[in-house]
Amino acid sequence: MAAKKASETFSKSMIEDVHKWGCLKQTGVSLRYMMEFGSKPNERNLLISAQFLHKELPIRIARRAIELQNLPYGLSHKPAVLKVRDWYLDSFRDLRTFPDIKNMNDEKAFTDMIKAIKVRHNNVVPTMALGVQQLKKGMDPKIVDEDLDEIHQFLDRFYMSRIGIRMLIGQHVELHNPHPAPHCVGYIDTKMSPVEVARNASEDARSICCREYGSAPDVHIYGDPDFTFPYVPAHLHLMVFELVKNSLRAVQERFMDSDKVTPPVRIIVADGLEDVTIKVSDEGGGIARSGLPKIFTYLYSTARNPLDENEDVGVSDNVTMAGYGYGLPICRLYARYFGGDLQIISMEGYGTDAYLHLSRLGDSQEPLP
Ligand SMILES: Nc1ncnc2c1ncn2[C@@H]1O[C@H](COP(=O)(O)OP(=O)(O)OP(=O)(O)O)[C@@H](O)[C@H]1O
């Protein structure tokens, strides 16, 4: 089926509106602000929050929609990318056609609407991965990895922005929860234990590994389980899960057919004044130095791509051990979103250390691409 142009589905005036809003300045929010603001989820604050999102979300969404239209090497015209663009345009329209929020009834309707927007965008990451895959398949072999840097940088901006949009929507929606979990403000747990989150994430990664290989290396966690700091447990879970999954895969692949005892994956949680650092260490053989620059790109994985098998079916929700090559770059974006970072140090022939730094201060503003 021929791909439709945006102008065939969306009115000219709406497209002009997208360009107008895409030029407006975005406003970043810090973890500390979200926490302080959300600790008093009274009607006044909910109204202020909804009014802020009513203005902020269309700006952020419009920027992404414009970028999606202007990608190099024809990526914008790939069917999967057009689908994602239409989700962004639909959401922009929903937000812009929503009248001014004046009272709690409006606020409730608005909250329902942004909740639906969040669901609409659930599959953006695998769908974009499919688009990139479609591009790679038909690509001129003369285009080398360096040329794809522009696409890589776009995807970094795009996914970073997505993390922010979903955080803001999720935080607002959660503030309506009449029975929040103890010491939770929206998505933020003011007393999150990194050791506990690391334990849960490791167990989840181990079960995927067991499903795939029939067994899984042990994971040993070192650190004070009573140590807590304010952070978003869902983000930390996702990051540790990805890192441990990579480590388990490397160790499993290296030791599954050997007589040697399988070494455990080790996680160390250190609480510094500025950062909480989580190190995930494995003896899975490491990564060759020549391969290191590639591991943070969206176009590289040594695993077979799961999309190869179900390209026509669309995107399956099945989590697999590896495959899109998105684990590390996305993990680093989550870390950077609240002022942290991710570094990978490898000793080829031995193993890999991943250092996940999380900023403790919570003062850094969202990076706004
Ligand atoms: N701990 C590790 N030991 C050895 N190689 C690793 C390790 N972590 C990552 N890698 C290498 O880096 C590549 C990219 O990792 P990344 O997590 O980004 O993607 P992936 O695991 O292949 O796929 P997925 O998107 O499912 O996470 C892997 O395919 C693997 O070759």
UniProtKB/TrEMBL annotation:
Gene3D superfamilies: Alpha-ketoacid/pyruvate dehydrogenase kinase, N-terminal domain (1.20.140.20), Histidine kinase-like ATPase, C-terminal domain (3.30.565.10). Its EC number is 2.7.11.-. Residues 236-362 form the Histidine kinase domain. Its main location: endoplasmic reticulum. It is found in: Endoplasmic reticulum membrane; Mitochondrion matrix. It is a multi-pass membrane protein. GO terms for cellular component: endoplasmic reticulum membrane; mitochondrial matrix. The keyword Aminoacyl-tRNA synthetase does not apply. It catalyses: L-seryl-[pyruvate dehydrogenase E1 alpha subunit] + ATP = O-phospho-L-seryl-[pyruvate dehydrogenase E1 alpha subunit] + ADP + H(+). This is Protein-serine/threonine kinase.
